Every structure is written in structure tokens, then in C-alpha cells.
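explain this:
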Amino acid sequence: MEAEELLRRYADGERDFEGVDLRRVDLCNANLSGINLRNSYIEESGLIHINLSGANLEGIDLRDIVLENANLSAVNMIEANLSEVNLMCANITDAIFNGACLSNVRLLYANLSRSIFRNTNMNEVDFDGTNLADADFRDAKDAYLDDMYIFDPYLRYAAVKPVNPNLIERGGAIFCRTIMPDGSICNDGCNRIIS
């Protein structure tokens, strides 16, 4: 499907685009809040600054897509494939990623507060400067700390915004009320959050 057709049908009130093939489409700056793209495939597409808030993206294949500064708040990404995705500075609050694949994902300075990552594959995810307050990582796989990357149950120091910019360290982030893969709660950075 071409971008023009999708945008026209969305503007006409249609929201169900389940299973659509969106290869090489430019949807940068588009407002597609509440859209259903369940089990869709998006490849070589422009999605910078897209608004997909409240969208159903369950089972979507977004491999190697750039979603910088995207609004993905309250999205359903259950069992989605986000391998090699760039989500730098994205708003991904209150999202559900249960069973999703987030291998080699860049989440630099993204806001993932109150999002759920249960049983999620998180191999080589870059959380530098990311807000993970109240996020749930129970049973997340391959999560361990290695310089700027987060691995195993040592998920500490991932930046929560708002923070004092003088306290942000390279590779550092602050977890506050964050549920770790083993079910424990990490509050290592709550005292560094500016109210």
C-alpha cells in the first residue's frame, strides 16, 4: 500500500489496516494515532516524528526502521519484531512489549516509563539516558549491564527524565520503581529525579 492511500483512508475515518504491507513509504510526521497495524510489515520506510499513540502494533515487523522522536505512547507491541530499530528520543510511555524482540535497539533518551517488557528479548539494547521509571522487565531475556548497554539483573543507572543534566553520566541511567527481570524492584535513582 502506498502512503497516500493509507493517509487518505485514515483521514476518511478508517483505522483497521491489519496485515498491510508498507514497504518504502514515507510516513514521517504523520498522525496515525489509534491505527490498527497488527501483523503488518514495514520495510525501508520513513517514520521519523510519526504519531502512533494508542495504536495496535501487535506482531508488527519493524526491523531496521528509524522511529526517532516518534510518539508511541500506549501502543500494543506484543510479539512485535523491533530488531535493529532506532527509537532515539521516542515517547513510548504506557506501552506493552510482552514477548517482543528488541535485539540491537537504540533507545537513547527515550521515555519508556510505565511500559511493560515481560518475556521480551532485549539483547544488546542501548538504554543510555532512557527514562525507565515504573517500567516492568519481569522475565526479560538477555538483559545485562555492559558499559552503555543494559544486561542481566543489573539494570541500574538508566536515566529517568526529568533529571538534573549535571548528573547524567555516559552510559548511565536511573531506575526508579523499575521491576527487574527477576521481579525485584530497583530504586537506585529515585533520589536523582527532579520533581
